[in-house]
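Hi R.,

As promised on Friday, here is the backbone we talked about, encoded as structure tokens. Could you run it through your design pipeline when you get a chance and send me back a sequence?
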């Protein structure tokens, strides 16, 4: 269904076609050409990441991270239920069981105070998900991981150019993953990364990424031929996607500033409704810097959420709910979860509505969205 004001429109900064054409002209359309390497180097230098491996998707990055966790059947990985399916799937495919933890009512991130109680002797990793580009409380999670001897894998799909205590999300845990899907702030259609912050994992990561071979050593002249040495797959992105992404990354700060303006305009226009208790907007702790990935509102009930979404649709405006909690999915129920298992997750997910949020959203379009919300609220 077409909408006059859609939920999302991917932004094209201006040099994408030029860079894609350059890659084609150079005969570099597969992986690890100048644009793949350039994007990785940019992210490493800008965000203080030891090594960035460009991926065909964030899902692929998480799947590689799961392999690096060296999981065995029956091992457990702690994560929130309020996340995209890839967060859990990556570790389930590697043989692990997801252990879901409830979220905080302010940021909608995994509640760090509940994580230690979720540990067992089979726990191998903690997977914080930085919802809406707002950081999880990483220091307590890192301390717990060190105490228990497990890895921390940041799902920073929504967290590019967002920070926790001045540290870039995706640069803090042992491993991290970014997304450049066309719903994100910076896009390549499909695309992502695996960020290696624990250097002890780097050599094996390089091997797994290249079909389980030591081919990268061959390319560097360290060996005279390469061979199969470990499990792996083709976790390599197309050079054309990275050429597109390079143009986006060159506009890292202007894109952030435009999204900030849109986010703040929503907050200002809807402040009277928040003050009167009709709805609630996002919360960002003082020690976190968000990247303005989304603007959501929480209504009083699921019925109110669905009523507002319908009201907006009638006016040609697309606003969407977000994740169905994974613990209540058919797969989640296989592990014994049921209604009421994670009450905060279940409550907030039923009341959340995401508003249109994209670079080219005009002030007039934003005002139409806000006026429709105010009208629905009886204002």
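Update: got your reply. Pasting your designed sequence below so it's all in one thread:
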């Amino acid at each position: 269904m077409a909408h006059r004001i859609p939920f999302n429109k991917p932004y094209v900064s201006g040099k994408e076609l030029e860079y894609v054409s350059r890659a084609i002209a150079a005969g570099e359309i597969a992986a690890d050409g100048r644009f793949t390497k350039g994007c990785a180097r940019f992210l490493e230098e800008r965000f203080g990441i030891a090594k960035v491996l460009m991926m065909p998707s964030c899902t692929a990055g998480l799947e590689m991270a799961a392999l690096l966790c060296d999981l065995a059947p029956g091992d457990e990985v702690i994560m929130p239920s309020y996340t995209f399916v890839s967060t859990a799937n990556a570790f389930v495919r590697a043989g692990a069981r997801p252990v879901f933890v409830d979220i905080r009512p302010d940021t909608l991130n995994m509640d760090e105070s509940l994580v230690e109680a979720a540990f067992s002797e089979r726990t191998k990793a903690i997977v914080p998900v930085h919802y809406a580009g707002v950081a999880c409380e990483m220091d307590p999670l890192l301390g717990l991981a060190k105490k228990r001897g497990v890895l921390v894998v940041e799902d920073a799909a929504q967290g590019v150019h967002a920070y926790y205590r001045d540290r870039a999300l995706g640069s803090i845990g042992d491993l991290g993953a970014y997304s450049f899907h066309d719903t994100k702030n910076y896009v390549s259609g499909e695309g992502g990364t695996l960020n290696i912050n624990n250097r002890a994992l780097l050599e094996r990561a390089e091997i797994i990424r290249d079909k389980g071979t030591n081919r990268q050593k061959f390319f560097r002249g360290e060996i005279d031929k390469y061979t199969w040495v470990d499990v792996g797959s083709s976790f390599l992105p197309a050079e054309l996607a990275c050429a597109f992404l390079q143009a986006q990354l060159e506009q890292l700060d202007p894109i952030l500033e435009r999204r900030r303006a849109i986010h703040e305009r929503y907050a200002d226009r809807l402040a009277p409704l928040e003050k009167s208790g009709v709805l609630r907007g996002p919360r960002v702790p003082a020690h976190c810097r968000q990247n303005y990935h989304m603007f959501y509102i929480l209504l009083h009930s699921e019925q109110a959420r669905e009523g507002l979404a319908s009201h907006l649709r009638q006016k040609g405006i697309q606003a969407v709910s977000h994740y169905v909690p994974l613990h209540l999915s058919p797969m989640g129920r296989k592990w014994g979860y049921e209604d009421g298992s994670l009450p905060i997750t279940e409550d907030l997910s039923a009341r959340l509505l995401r508003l249109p949020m994209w670079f080219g959203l005009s002030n007039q379009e934003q005002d139409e969205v806000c006026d429709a919300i105010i009208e629905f609220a009886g204002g």
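One thing I noticed while checking it: The CA atoms of residues 69 and 124 lie 7 Å apart.

Thanks again,
M.
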